[in-house]
Amino acid sequence: MAVNLQKGQKISLNKEAGGDLNKVVMGLGWDAVKKKGFLGFGSREQEIDLDASCLLFDDKGALTDAVWFRQLRSQDGSIQHTGDNRTGDGDGDDEQIIVDLARVPAHIKSLVFTVNSFTGQNFSQVANAFCRIVNADDGRELARYDLSVQGSHSAQIMAKIYRHNGEWKMHAIGENGAGRTFQDLLPQISPHL
User: Residue 145's Cα: distance from chain center in Å?
Assistant: First the structure.
């Protein structure tokens, strides 16, 4: 059973997987809040373009690479974004980032996952938002973090996967921010490295 993470909580992904962990999938899902029409008639869904990004930081806290909708693969090939969903339509993961943990270079200490509203809507217009980590080898969900805290923010630093004493751990950061792309969040990310 997956761990439902609270803001600030840390877990060992290796322990949740029951041993070695080779590859994980970070899934991001969301729905748009339905807009109500006049007197409740004619309600409709709006389109919201949330974008998941994975930022690679070295042991000195320097950003070395980024995987996002404009660069779907890390330079070393260890991380792959499956593509940009511009509406949030459908059930389950709307965007996925696949991380081959065994191929992540040794000098990379942290992988930080962010979400941004590229179209500029804030999270008061987003429902059922989540991020989750799935063991890619067996499809089992290891951890889930609810992002549906509605508010005026247009971005969030979701979580960090990091190496600690030879194992992979996850920290649910959940810090709200503003900006259309991950670059807008970089000053906020630094204290979490």
Answer: 9
Hey, what domains does the chain have and what are their CATH numbers? 3-33+45-192 (2.60.60.30)
What percent of the chain stands above pLDDT 70? 88
Sequence-separated (6 or more) residues with CB below 8 Å from residue 22: 100, 101, 102, 136, 137
Q: What is the pLDDT of residue 155?
A: 94
Provide the 8-state DSSP code for 88.
Answer: -
Q: 117-141: b or e for each residue (b if 16 or more CB lie within 10 Å)? A: bbbebbbeebbebbbbbbbbeeeee
What's the rounded Cα separation, in Å, for the pair 121 and 69? 18
pTM: 0.89
Q: Are 26 and 136 in contact (CB under 8 A)?
A: no
Residue 127 exposure: Cα atoms within 13 Å on the Cβ side: 11
Rg (C-alpha) for the chain, rounded Å, is 16
